[in-house]
Amino acid sequence: MYKLTKIQPINCKIDISPFLLGVARIFDFTQSLGRPGKLEPDEVDREALQSDWDALGDDMHKSMKTVMG
Question: Residue 28's domain spans which residues?
Fold first, then answer.
């Protein structure tokens, strides 16, 4: 299975495989995939905090798997 990536446009709310994202960019003639949406500063802060907590949770999960076996 392929690993889903979180490298995606800021206004995209789903996980997508890197291959499919590449295919989508080939056919994105308006270049709307790489253009961030118009977000309020509060929304940008919320997404940044969510990303930070997601990364922390992933690190904790990996650490617990390593320690617990």
Answer: 1-36
